[in-house]
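User: I'm putting together notes for a lab meeting next week and I want to include a structural view of one of the chains we've been expressing. I don't have a solved structure, so I'd like a prediction I can at least talk through. The sequence is below, exactly as it appears in our construct file.
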Amino acid sequence: MRHIVTVVQARVGSSRLPGKVLLDLVGQPLLLRMVERVQAAQRVGTLVVATTAEPTDDPIEALCLQHGLPCYRGSTDDLLDRHYQVGLLWKADAVAKIPSDCPLIDPAVIDRVFEVFLQNAFDYVSNLHPATYPDGNDVEVMTMAALETAWKEAQRPFEREHTTPFLWENPERFSLGNVCWETGLNYSMTHRWTIDYPEDYAFIRAVYEELYPKNPRFGLQEVLDLTARRPDIFALNSQYAGVNWYRHHLHELKTITADQTRQV
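Assistant: Thanks for the context. Below is the predicted structure for the 264-residue chain, given as structure tokens.
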């Protein structure tokens, strides 16, 4: 069994929603609710919160210390380096990347991606190329060797900031696997469960307030059922469905097309 280190990247700074990872979700900071869901998966191995060395992120380290969570502090903009250094320090065979803006992520989805990685000889496996799950179920896992190659060779700023593009943009060099939603549906551009705007927080808070008290381990299907019967909740952030970072780099990305993102 390979030793997986799962990195949850988090920072307080956010131009659109400052302090989003510390916002309240039914009595705890969003980051803790996020970690709670990731830890409910069976195959995450060692979970490490990776934040920046900026003083503004001192509260993240304090929160981790308070709750016994491993925490690494590193580069502000070079997340590729942040993930690589965590892998080195925790002696990983493989490193998983799960961003902290996905507090509705389904633990079963995490396990499904990890199982494909563990049962095959891929360098990199995700559920994002192409994406089919509701946005906010993002899971990526890669061998330490592949991560090291990217760390050594990636030069463009977006490759450093977003950690993994050097891998999935070079399919001729790396063995890539992808996990599609088993339903055959594609909700990646229509259902937004990530947090980047105040409207996203309103949506996620409403979902937690409806579902968490009855079942703290609610999953993907429960969220879909809720938004189907409560279109008012679904509509809270629907204007941002399909909006992601790809929109800023379509002229540079080889494997991403314009229909995989939306402009604000």
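A couple of points you could mention at the meeting. The two ends are 43 Å apart (CA to CA). The first strand starts at residue 4 and ends at 9.

User: Perfect, that's what I needed.
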